[in-house]
Amino acid sequence: MLATYHAHTTYCDGRDTPDAMADAAFAAGYRVLGFSAHAPVPVPSPGNLSPDRVAPYAAAVRAAAARYKGRMEILTGLEIEWVPGLGIPPEDGYAAVPIDYRIGSLHFARLSGDSFFSVDGPAESFREGVRAGYGGDGTLLYRDYYRELGGLVRTGGFQILGHLDIVKMHNKDGRWFDEGSREYLSAAFEVAEALTGTRIAVEVNTGGPARGKTSEPYPSLPILRELRRRGIPIVIGADAHTAAHLDPHWRRIGLDLAREAGYRELAVLGRNGWTTGPLE
């Protein structure tokens, strides 16, 4: 069954409306579509919702869900952020808004004090961030990234872990660190250890290839094999920022990687909780 729980719209940093994304997903054969707008954060981030935008976003998604009732299940989600040094921001300002599920993600790395940069932002700002925050040492960056990601997992409060190794997005040809090194994989595997027994699913995120940012999904094959060894469930996440990212072609790339890692089934999330389905 075609399903994705990671989709963004014009309410945050996506380019298409919820209705346009729903229409594209249904035309592509999806049967479950989860929207996951970037939740509010207490640091400058124009791609995240402000608290007063959460309710209108949720209402727009519910309207799309009503339009497709009985044909495609549409869920209202949020991609919540882990902010280094601050943790998961409280939802006090919009706690009354009905949310079906949450994706937990880490996008920020610390510069100094209350200053941050995005590990998946423009290449120039990433380069400057590594220089200013880590003395140009990518090893220090990934150690910090995976340590913070482990904190997110241990804190919990979400159903799906997003793009586990997105710290590699600007690491083409090993520019900043060696993704195959024992040290790097050991840091990533600590997150896998934290996930063990939590029932949190990890998404095989195809947003990198779809947007031309990486040649493979997140996470990489060695990390995905470790997740499989530990029995950690997976979903396929489009991380769609336009309707074109919902093309099943990108999903197949994720499915192929999952098969190579040894997975034979996917976790499926609906309003009634988790079930499983074949890897297809």
Indicate the CATH architecture.
Answer: Alpha-Beta Barrel
H/E element string? EHEHEEEEHHEHEHHEHEE
What is the domain tally? 1
Oligomeric state as shown: single chain
Strand composition percent = 15-25%
CATH topology: TIM Barrel
Written description of the protein model:
By secondary structure, this protein is α/β, with parallel strands linked by helices. It has helices at 18-27, 51-67, 123-134, 138-155, 182-195, 207-210, 221-229, 248-261, and strands spanning 3-4, 32-38, 73-81, 101-105, 108-112, 115-118, 160-161, 201-205, 234-237, 265-270, 273-278. The chain has one domain (3-278): Alpha-Beta Barrel (TIM Barrel). The chain has 8 helices and 11 strands. A 7-stranded parallel sheet has the order 1-2-3-4-7-8-9. Strands 5-6 form a two-stranded antiparallel sheet. It is globular, with a radius of gyration of 18 Å. The N and C termini lie close together (7 Å). The model has no long low-confidence stretch (mean pLDDT 96).
